[in-house]
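Table S2 (continued). Query chain:
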Amino acid sequence: MAEKELSWGKVVEKNTLGNISLPKKMFDSFFKESWTSSPSLTHVLIVFSPKPRALKIDIFPLEGSEVIKILLKLTDFSVNTIEQIREITKELKLPDDLFMSGVCIEQRFCIYESYIEKNKLKVSVDLIKERFASVESITEVQVQYIE
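Corresponding output:
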């Protein structure tokens, strides 16, 4: 059986962070696993998630070049709120194959976000905003176009 790695590490100087080159073996493995199964994958989405002591980077293969980010600002992440978000996502047939995240930053201020390939949307952006805005604990709905 071929040996697989769970992760790759690389040490670089802080002042070179803007020009990082990633190991070729990492991309070779990623492309082999993710891309050979679907030649329609032509782009990648790179999501940067800052943490207190780390910067997490996720890379997702895409079929197109247009991605939207749905950003919800909430007063809580109660079971009821999560269930309503899940139901709306299901009702609107929003794909969930890219990045999703949610966190409460402070009491009564939480954020939920989801990245979606625009070509996979079955409904309008206006309907997405309208449906999520109907959830009581959601105070703001933003849809951002990612380039």
